[in-house]
Amino acid sequence: MADLQQGFDFDAPYPELAHEQDNAIVAQHVNPLNNHQIDQQINPPVSWIKGFLSAKQQQLLFNEVAHYPLEKVAIEVYGKQHLIPRTQAWFGDVGCDYHYSKLHISALPWPKVLSRLRLKLLSDHQIQSNSVLVNRYADGHDCMGWHSDDEPEIVTNSAIASVTLGACRDFIVRHKETQTKVKYALESGDLLIMHPGMQQHWQHALPKRLKVTEPRINFTFRHIIPHYYR
Ligand SMILES: O=C(O)CCC(=O)C(=O)O
Ligand SMILES: [Fe+2]
2 near 23, Cβ under 8 Å? Predict the structure, then answer.
């Protein structure tokens, strides 16, 4: 397991190349240091680190996910109950429970590989987190609608780090006022850091992609205020 401590080639260039497609700007590479300092109306405050996890690290995580108690929960939308189009699990420190559409989900203790990934985010990218939402999209029919992760229990000005495993899917972000859209084709092993300002000014979604037949798993590491709803 010393594997997660290994160095990665963060010196590889991340040129900013963007072109129009499907009404969304396609972000090909994002400079992890500078992008979020540029005009935040045009450039979402994110860093995209491709190949954050090695093939071996992805495999370790993938094997562990097979044992997670992933569930399809029901949420209320306009007074009606709907099953979410994916399965999910929530892990975190004691008191770091999850509140979502009238649901209270207690944090499960950190599994071994997931806790190592949390440490790697801290050591490599100074991402502080005490909880993580795991979403599994069985295939391209599973999805997540437009939202911002702006719950009041999230620590002000904290970053949210998103790690992807499995199938490549488009992750789309949209500016709340200008409606500018940017598309990131996230691949297995990629890390996308959503910096402060992102949830305030932008929404994000994972649209259906009916041609995708393989599962995708996503981990969003969050820093929340413990015992917020006590
Ligand atoms: O699966 C993804 O990439 C997005 C997940 C997400 O937005 C969330 O968990 O809040
Ligand atoms: Fe989100």
Answer: no
